[in-house]
């Protein structure tokens, strides 16, 4: 059986199991690729680059490519054939749509400053063209194909206006796993809501930061994506994903804590409150992510659609919290959060 036949069978088996097939694409070329020797000198970003060696694979060095070079057209031609020949359900792009820095003179990307020093050219315009051609190449043949982009913080209209789901966060834990993402950084770099799409956040590798990270991601309608393994905390993540489906927690129902129409606030001024208003209920995300000590948050529901509600339910533990005289008290540990469902009576 040829490699093509095996892949056809793999995609078919995946579909037979009720699962979509979304293959991985990156932003590099491997030295093992047949076209490496011919192409790389013409498609690399110039300068010297430390090669990437993927863990847990046959050791091979990979190098970045510039999609503003002939590589972009070569890749698109190959992808058009790939989509024609295999019924994949989408493409997963690891940085593929992120404009890189390039100094390769053969692409016209070697710029100099007023002192004659070479400065990197960022391929933003080239990436826009590339993304539009990719759209025609993939969705032109199969409308509705999923585009899942790993953007590493590069939330740019050149690609975000086209992708369906974006994930982010690896760049945070890679440099300092203890770093707590400031809210403003989160809002700027991790906010898929700006582009009307869901966003996922790759959590720190260290599980001790898992609950703390949820305290910020959930404030922004972002789900965590586990790094590796199937330990207890990953199982908890998958349970949370299921709860999002069960409670219909979707972007169109979401209002972040900083929005002008965020009608629920913590009267103590310490906790932050984002919320989902679904056709059936309101789900509040009450977070003490910024706090280094416990907080007793107090939410006044008078003059809101929840004015007559008598209790809130913690969607993760099932615990019922009473609402007295339209006021809900929520005890939050330092850096902790709760997700509470409230149904109007
Ligand atoms: Zn270039």
Question: Would you mind describing this structure in some detail?
Answer:
The chain is of the alpha+beta class and 345 residues long. The protein folds into 2 domains: 3-248, TIM Barrel; 255-342, Sandwich (Immunoglobulin-like). The chain is 27% helix and 24% strand. The protein contains 9 helices and 21 strands. A hairpin with a 4-residue loop joins strand 15 (272-277) and strand 16. Helix 3 packs parallel to helix 4. The longest helix is centred in the N-terminal third of the chain and has 16 residues, at 70-85. The chain is elongated, with a radius of gyration of 23 Å. Bound molecules: zinc ion.
Question: Descriptors for this entry?
Answer:
elongated, Immunoglobulin-like, 2 domains, 6-stranded parallel sheet, TIM Barrel, alpha+beta, binds zinc ion
> What is the count of distinct domains?
2
State the distance separating the first and last CA atoms: 63 Å
Main sheet strand line-up: 14-15-16-21-18-19-20-17
CATH class of the largest domain: Alpha Beta
Number of strands: 21
CATH topology of the largest domain: TIM Barrel
């Amino acid at each position: 059986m040829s490699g093509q036949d095996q892949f056809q069978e793999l995609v078919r088996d995946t579909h037979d199991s009720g699962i979509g097939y979304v293959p991985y694409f990156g932003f590099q070329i491997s030295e093992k690729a047949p076209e490496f020797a011919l192409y790389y000198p013409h498609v690399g970003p110039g300068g010297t680059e430390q090669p990437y060696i993927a863990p847990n694979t046959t050791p091979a060095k990979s190098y970045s490519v510039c999609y503003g070079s002939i590589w972009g057209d070569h890749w698109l031609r190959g992808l058009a054939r790939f989509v024609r020949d295999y019924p994949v359900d989408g493409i997963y792009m690891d940085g593929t749509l992120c404009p890189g820095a390039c100094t390769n003179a053969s692409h016209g990307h070697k710029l100099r400053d007023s002192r004659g020093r070479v400065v990197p050219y960022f391929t933003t315009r080239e990436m826009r063209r590339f993304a539009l051609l990719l759209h025609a190449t993939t969705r032109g043949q199969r409308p509705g194909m999923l585009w899942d982009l790993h953007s590493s913080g590069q939330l740019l209209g050149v690609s975000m206006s086209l992708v369906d789901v974006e994930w982010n966060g690896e760049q945070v834990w890679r440099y300092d796993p203890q770093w707590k993402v400031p809210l403003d950084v989160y809002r700027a770099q991790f906010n898929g809501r700006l582009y009307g799409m869901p966003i996922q956040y790759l959590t720190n590798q260290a599980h001790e930061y898992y609950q703390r990270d949820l305290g910020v991601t959930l404030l922004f309608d972002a789900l965590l994506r586990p790094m590796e393994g199937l330990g207890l905390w990953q199982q908890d993540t998958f349970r949370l994903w299921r709860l999002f489906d069960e409670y219909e927690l979707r972007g169109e129902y979401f209002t972040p804590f900083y929005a002008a129409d965020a009608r629920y606030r913590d009267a103590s001024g310490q906790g932050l409150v984002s919320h989902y208003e679904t056709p059936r209920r309101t789900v509040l995300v009450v977070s003490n992510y910024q706090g280094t000590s416990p907080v007793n948050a107090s939410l006044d529901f008078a003059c809101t659609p929840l004015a007559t509600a008598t209790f809130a339910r913690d969607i993760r533990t099932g615990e019922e919290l009473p609402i007295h005289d339209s006021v809900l008290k929520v005890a939050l540990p330092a850096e902790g959060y709760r997700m509470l469902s409230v149904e109007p009576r």
